[in-house]
Amino acid sequence: MESNSSLDSCHSELQEASDEFDSMLEKDSDLSQFVGKMFFVWEGNQCLTVWLRHINKHHSMDKDWHISVDCIVVDTRNCAAVFLNAMNDINW
What we know:
By secondary structure, the protein is mostly helical. The protein contains three helices and no strands.
């Protein structure tokens, strides 16, 4: 079990990353509406998946290993099933 200081440190690093992300969103008039919102992420980057265990084991507190990646924001209302099926076809 982690000590409170580890949890506090992790929380502060996550909050810092969240603040940086929100700051980036605020600069874009199309994306500013998403400041402070939670995102559901459909992972399509197998390279990240391969490296994630190594990063979490050896670099969990090293901010340089936790980078933002380019992404596409898609409104899936009323078409989530079709969208997920298309992603499956693309990643297959």
